[in-house]
Amino acid sequence: MPQALTSLKAGDKIALIAPANAFNEERLIRGCQEIERAGFVPFVPEATRRIYGRFSGTDDERRQALEDAFTDSSVRAILCCRGGYGTQRYIDNIKYELIKTNPKPFVGYSDATTLINAIALRCDFPTFHGPMITDLALYDSAQSWQHLWAVLKGERIIPSDLPAFKEQCEVIVPGEASGRLWGGNLSMLATSCGTKTAIPSGGILFIEEIGSDLYQFDRMLVQLSRNGLLDSLKGVLINSLDGVEDKGPPAFGMTPREVTLSHFVARGIPVVYNVPAGHCCHRTTLPIGIDVTLRAKNNQIELMHAPLFS
């Protein structure tokens, strides 16, 4: 059973870190304003503003900034500024025992998929696939942020309470399933196959992806399958797959939905499509590495999870 986190209260400090790409100051300011509106105090470590090529500092600097945010006792939660590329360059050098003894909410998606799954797996506490501050310039969705803050404050709210979740999700294969939730960006999950931080098999899998050609999307699902990660799944959640399309020639000859069906329908597990999380307008905050229960029938979908906070 994963160890519980401590929920946030008004006035708590939230650290903003940039574990991958650098970004501009305007986006940082908007992110700080959103945190202040929610009643918390934004904390921007010096390392967050570093620029080293495309990255926010060297690999060691970004790793150190991550560890420092966890060990700083004044910080109550950590929010990633953006994704891009870079976390896999130092993922195996992270001092996980240090993080494990300083559990706190950690939120990110996209390239941060590597971190949220690795930390949940190696440190035995839940992390969160949820909004990042650059979303304010890309996907300005008030309900996404309201949902995130409600989750982190320990309110009685579940992922399927997000209005967009109820409106957008489509049941492809009905059913009920329970298991630990793993997943995130498919490109990152596929690249992690065969490594120390690959997601475990079984449980419930969440997949999101952006901008891939259909053959690339299919190839990454094949990669997960060949590594046995799809063999014992209990259920699957898939987002809207923004920009995942046939970019031939030559044409792949299937839609994203049909590719999805080809990999999961025959497995006899519940499959839910168009989940608002990841690279899309509305982003459900999903707890990673903790037991969830999925009930999907006639487009009536409920996604619940075990207690997150002590």
Description:
With 310 residues, the chain is an alpha/beta fold. The radius of gyration is 18 Å and the shape is globular. The longest helix is centred in the N-terminal third of the chain and has 13 residues, at 25-37. It has helices at 25-37, 59-71, 96-100, 113-123, 135-138, 142-152, 163-168, 186-191, 214-226, 256-264, and strands at residues 13-17, 41-43, 75-80, 106-108, 127-129, 170-173, 175-185, 204-208, 235-239, 271-275, 286-288, 291-297, 300-305. The protein is 29% helix and 21% strand. Helix 9 (214-226) packs parallel to helix 10. It is built from ten helices and 13 strands.
Sheet/helix structural class: alpha/beta
Classify the helix fraction into a percent range: 25-40%
What is the residue-mean pLDDT, rounded to a whole number?
95
Instruction: Please give the radius of gyration in angstroms.
Output: 18 Å
Assembly category:
single chain
How many E-type strands?
13
